[in-house]
Amino acid sequence: MSECIFCKIVAGELPGKKVYEDEELLAFHDIHPVAPVHLLIIPKRHIVSLVECQANDEGMLGRMLLLAPRLAREHGLDNGFRTTINTGRGGGQLVFHLHLHVFGGGTLPTHL
Ligand code: DGP
User: Fold this and answer.
1) Whose CA is nearest to atom 17 of ligand 1?
2) With a 6 A CB cut-off, is 91 part of the ligand 1 pocket?
3) Does ligand 1 come within 6 angstroms of the Cβ of 103?
4) What's the CA angle centered on 19, arms 16 and 22, to 5 degrees?
5) How far, in Å, from the CA of 6 to the mean position of ligand 1?
6) Per the residue annotation, which of 75, 97, 99, 101 is the catalytic one?
7) Segment holding 70, helix H or strand E
8) Is the C-beta atom of 49 inside 6 A of ligand 1?
9) Residues with Cβ < 8 Å from 34, sequence gap 6 or more?
10) Chain segment 38-47, per-residue pLDDT in tens
11) Exposed, middle or buried by CB within 10 Å (0-12, 13-18, 19+), for 96?
12) Which of ligand 1's atoms lies nearest the C-alpha of 93?
């Protein structure tokens, strides 16, 4: 069994407040939101980070990015939102399964 938290959410072995699912991607609420709306979009397949992505992941990465504005709109983020991908320990990554943060709805810092 995988020890990866996000793989467990994909497998239904851990609860997740899911907001979107297809054959390739899953999106759910972040357990530690930094804004009134804070979602995570992940590939279902275990990929550690952006560094491990290959040329054949282009479509999946594009679909992750294109899903962000759709979910933002569906969650009322009409005034804008922020997307972040933390990569590696130096990039602040804590969960080593690729994920795209989508958050907003409050006053965000003006940089980063
Ligand atoms: P990052 O620093 O980019 O690796 O952010 C990981 C995010 O994952 C962090 O904002 C909190 C979130 N997170 C960690 N564990 C869980 C969990 O079990 N469920 C959910 N929904 N989110 C989690």
Assistant:
1) 31
2) no
3) no
4) 100
5) 8
6) 99
7) helix 58-74
8) no
9) 103
10) 999 999 999 9
11) middle
12) 4
The dihedrals phi and psi of 102, each to the nearest 5 degrees, come to -130, 115
Query: Is it the case that residue 29 has pLDDT exceeding 90?
Result: yes
99 is catalytic: yes
Distance 49 CA to ligand 1 centre (A): 14
Distances (CA, A) of 89 to 2, 11, 26, 56, 94: 21, 25, 23, 25, 7
Q: Which tens digit of pLDDT belongs to each residue from 50-103?
A: 999 999 999 999 999 999 999 999 999 999 999 999 999 999 999 999 999 999
Strand 100-104 to 82-84 pairing? antiparallel
Query: Would you list the domain boundaries of the chain?
Result: 5-104
Class of domain 5-104: alpha beta
25-29: average pLDDT: 98
**Cβ(41)–Cβ(67) below 8 Å:** yes
Q: Is the CB of 65 under 6 A from ligand 1?
A: no
Predicted structure pTM score: 0.97
